Amino acid sequence: MSRRGRPAASIFTKETAVHRRQILRALAALSLTPVLGRAADRPQNVGRDVKGQSLDDIIDRGFIQIGIYEDFPPYSWRNGDELKGVDVEIGKLIAEFIGVEPRFTLVSADENVDADMRNHVWRGHVISGDVVNVLLRVPYNRELALRNELVTLTGQYQNEQVAIAYDTGFYKDEKPVPAYFRFDKVGVENDSIADFYLSGIGNGSMLTNITRFRTPALAMAALRTGEVRAVMGARGQLEWGARDGIAVHAPPLPGLSVGTWTIGMAVRMNWRALSYSCDDAVRAAVADGRMARIYADHRLSWLPPVW
Prior knowledge:
By secondary structure, this protein is of the alpha/beta class. The protein is built from twelve helices and eleven strands. The protein folds into two domains: 46-159 and 263-297, Periplasmic binding protein-like II (D-Maltodextrin-Binding Protein, domain 2), CATH 3.40.190; 160-249, D-Maltodextrin-Binding Protein, domain 2. It is 38% helix and 23% strand. The strands form two sheets. Strands 1, 4, 5, 6, 7, 8, 9, 10 and 11 form a nine-stranded mixed beta sheet that branches. Strands 2-3 form a two-stranded antiparallel sheet. β7, α8 and β8 form a beta-alpha-beta unit.
């Protein structure tokens, strides 16, 4: 019995509860470290060699590893042994600005951009474990940045928008808008913004006239052969597939919350000096006209970002 007439076991239980609260507070503090400290610098189970390099390391070794999406014309694709596309040229601009050799890694798109940045920028793919120094063609917006705190979004170099490519022989005196596709055949990339948008108009009133294709290039090929009268999708990909007799325009799209978005690049958050250099390289290319020439060389309209 204790001095106060309570069993000694009760005193032990009280003391244990105090200790338990202290332990819980300590664990709660430790749980913040992925955001505030050590784990943000190196995530658990990720080695030091797969989390990127500093700008000084890149300069010392003489090359920069640039991630570009595979089979994604007009931005990046392989032509035999040669890499082609807008993003290849932009990667060369970045490397030239830093003073190193560009080396490109073709990456595959995952289920979303968050997974792409996890696999290729800050953690590494579950199989290879490798990361690139810079990943190009990443959408630039606040929500994406907040969701991915281990990545710095930088180097905004283009605005993209949803547009419509159309047969000028069929639409001689007018430019088609979505309402036309209640009656005319339109092609879209499967599971794209254009697909979801048109499928939802008028309680599905356009579904019978929507033809889905695996890629925008296949949709544009169908437009050239007359299988469809128009194609809706990202402007750059439509312009790339346009030929004589096909025009592209970007009409108002009522009800579409995001019809225009900014394109930039992603760098791991602890290599800020590298992200600043990438941004400086882009701004220099915009200022002296090189960025506009890259797009013109690929028969594309360049919509500059608003900084």
